From TrEMBL:
Protein name (database record): NAD(P)/FAD-dependent oxidoreductase
Naturally occurring in which organism (per UniProt): Cyclobacterium jeungdonense
InterPro entries recorded: FAD/NAD-bd_sf (IPR036188)
One Pfam family in the UniProt entry: NAD_binding_8
Gene3D superfamilies given in the database record: 3.90.660.50, FAD/NAD(P)-binding domain (3.50.50.60)
Length: 472
């Protein structure tokens, strides 16, 4: 039977959409298949609480979408995509009432770090100044870099545990800010290479900001999809693929799915060795997520936090490190690291006039069904007395419910696999190309491949480039 399509992409997360665009740009006839009625994967926005309140299902703030090299090449603004930049990128309150913040300006951030001013500048400035040349290497599979010296200097610090590199700092506030950044990695801060997560997020912020998407993250997905359609691609929605035989014929097939789901869909096409490798892939901690409809802005004690798009709660580096370690061990923390975003302060389309939204999650053991609502609300209340009285609606996702909503988030792991030293470059298996499977012209392009989690589309970009080389 002749192939109707040259290529099929299964899954419409940022990586599936990116792969589809790259393949279509090559002149291939591409079909993108999405299991749900709306495209986007982790980039969906819904009225989860009350009518008129728009909440991002997963991704909420987009430093890597703004700073990543691929999205910059696409005319997404023509499709209505608009980044909204908060005055302060991220604020981090401490138990003593002080606040330290990440600003767009490297030097403005450093100016508030006391004795650590020069240490912070010396650590981040080389990455910020050379971001345009470094980011393609940082956000790529393991290969000989285009800028080996600059990347090597970055790697010397990036590969260290974040708790170890934090010893460079003298100020409690600097260490806390650093810990809040590293904790995005959803793993113990003592793990090797957790410094890379903090450095990349901070440098990306100083270079391009930590913006949100006007109207919700769905707008980014829609912009990518509409560009793909204008290039001549086709999208089929509401078709959940459970086995590869359900797909039409094509020259190549790409899967924006987790290794676990890839095995379910196409495991009988793979070698015994590759199946063994995929089965060994390790998933990380889950998240418990809350969305709030509020009668007014969060009443932070600190005026500074009222200008921050993102707020990291959890206290000092010692407290955050202890909390993340407990959760990694399958326990629960009563003082969890909470990542909170308050988009409606800067994007008035998110809530009815006079009302507001808040988006928050904490880490929990994989697959947890434990209700962390009270714990999260208490953590916010600690720094914003009266917060609970502003709540007029709320919605929760435990880790199991998150996986049920998006089958790629195994156990609620929104990073699609632990990003530690053993899985940074070998996601999901140790192979010449991480995107090739053992079956010719079947590829994996999800966040379970390099460079890992985040809304940047680079895994899909690199996977599509690899497939094009193989095809031609």
């Amino acid at each position: 039977m002749d192939s109707i399509f040259d290529a099929i992409v299964v899954g419409s997360g940022p990586n599936g959409l990116s792969a589809a665009i790259v393949l279509q740009q090559q002149g291939l006839k591409v079909l993108l298949i999405e299991g749900k009625e709306t495209i986007g994967g982790g980039m969906r926005t819904m009225e989860l609480t009350l009518p008129g309140f728009k909440h991002d299902i997963c991704s909420a703030i987009h430093p890597m979408a703004a700073a990543g090299p691929f999205f910059k090449t696409l005319p997404l603004a023509q499709y209505g995509l608009e980044f909204v930049h908060p005055k302060i990128l991220a604020g981090h309150p401490l138990p003593d009432g002080s606040v330290t913040s990440l600003h767009r300006s490297l030097h403005e951030t450093a100016d508030h770090l006391g004795k650590d001013k020069n240490t912070y500048i010396n650590l981040l400035k080389p990455v910020v100044d050379h971001w345009e040349t470094l980011s393609p290497d940082i956000l790529s599979p393991l290969k000989f870099p285009k800028n080996p010296i600059k990347l090597g200097l970055f790697g010397i610090n990036a590969l260290k545990p974040s708790t170890f590199l934090a010893k460079k700092f003298k100020e409690t506030r600097t260490k806390a800010l650093w810990a809040g950044m590293a904790a995005h990695g959803i793993q113990p801060l003592t793990n090797i290479a957790t410094s890379a997560i903090a450095m990349v997020l901070m440098a990306a912020g100083h270079h391009s900001g930590w913006p949100m998407i006007k109207g919700g993250s769905q707008a980014l997905a829609d912009s990518l999809a509409n560009h793909f359609l204008d290039l001549g691609g086709k999208i089929e929605r509401g078709k959940m693929i459970t086995h590869i035989d359900e797909l039409p014929n094509a020259k190549l097939i790409m899967f924006d799915v987790s290794p676990k789901n890839l095995l379910k869909i196409a495991g009988d096409k793979f070698s015994k060795l590759y199946r063994w490798q995929l089965n060994r892939f390790r998933y990380g901690m889950g998240v418990f997520k809350m969305d709030f409809a509020l009668s007014q802005p969060i009443p932070w004690k600190s005026e500074e936090l009222k200008s921050a798009g993102t707020v990291h709660l959890g206290g000092t580096i010692e407290e955050i490190s202890k909390s993340e370690k407990l959760i990694w061990e399958g326990k629960y923390s009563q003082n969890p690291y909470v990542l909170l975003s308050q988009q409606s302060l800067f994007d008035k389309t998110r809530a009815p006039d006079g009302s507001h939204t808040a988006w928050a999650y904490c880490h929990v053991p994989s697959g947890s069904t434990y209700d962390m609502s009270t714990t999260i609300e208490d953590q916010i209340e600690k720094y914003a007395p009266g917060f609970k009285e502003t709540i007029i609606g709320k919605h929760t996702f435990n880790s199991k419910e998150i996986e049920n909503y998006n089958p790629n988030y195994i156990g609620g792991d929104i990073n699609s696999g632990v990003q530690d030293w053993s899985q940074i470059f070998t996601r999901p298996a140790l192979r010449i190309s991480p995107y090739r499977t053992s079956s010719k012209y079947l590829y994996i392009c999800s966040a379970s491949t390099p460079p890992g989690g985040g809304v940047h589309g680079m895994a899909g970009y690199h996977a599509a480039k690899r497939a094009i080389k193989d095809l031609f």
